[in-house]
Amino acid sequence: AQTVTQSQPEMSVQEAETVTLSCTYDTSESDYYLFWYKQPPSRQMILVIRQEAYKQQNATENRFSVNFQKAAKSFSLKISDSQLGDAAMYFCAYRSGGTYKYIFGTGTRLKVLA
Amino acid sequence: DVKVTQSSRYLVKRTGEKVFLECVQDMDHENMFWYRQDPGLGLRLIYFSYDVKMKEKGDIPEGYSVSREKKERFSLILESASTNQTSMYLCASRLTGTAGSGKLFFGSGTQLSVL
After folding, report:
1. Of chain A residues 83-112, which have a CB less than 8 A from chain B?
2. What is the tens place of the pLDDT at every residue in A19-67?
3. Could you say which residues from 34 to 93 on chain B have a Cβ atom under 8 Å away from some Cβ of chain A?
4. Read out DSSP for A14-36?
5. Alpha-carbon Rg for chain A in angstroms
6. pLDDT category, B97, cuts 50, 70, 90?
């Protein structure tokens, strides 16, 4: 069975600094997708970034980028120039291609210090 | 952008009550989901609906049922609420196919307390 592990329950970063959130997963599939979702205090989760397993190039979205290491089954999220609005719970998620089921990690709470 | 609306932000119920959690999406998405979010456990899938009147059990369906009579509405039902169902409930929807890109759209959650 596929699993997603986020080993950092909580992280802190100074405003304007860079922080990396870790995520590892376990799967025997070759076709899958990985996601990072953000859940701010408003509770509404939003997609931060998405990576297809078949793509070697790491996905980027403005200040957010991933380090996708397929062989190591690692999918970390880097947030550059951290802003106060980045403070949230971040969830890593996995989905096998052709299925509906998303598997979420336990989340990392990110605090941004002014 | 897609809007997923959950009928209640906070709900307090008594043990044994029948509880209805409603979710409505406005973008004609085929797939809808109900998740439960608990600290340290992440999100766990309760039920999934891939289209109207179609449903599949997720990882933790015990004590829950669902209804999807119309495409835009997906209801989660707690037949007889128990204290261990105190939790945050999140509804999500998704457009299938490549146009959907696998992106889930979430509601703002319902924090349910069962006393």
Report:
1. 91, 95, 100-102, 104-107
2. 999 999 999 988 899 999 999 998 999 999 999 999 889 999 999 999 9
3. 35, 40-45, 48, 50, 56, 58, 88, 90, 92
4. ETTS-EEE--EEE-S-SSEEEEE
5. 14
6. low
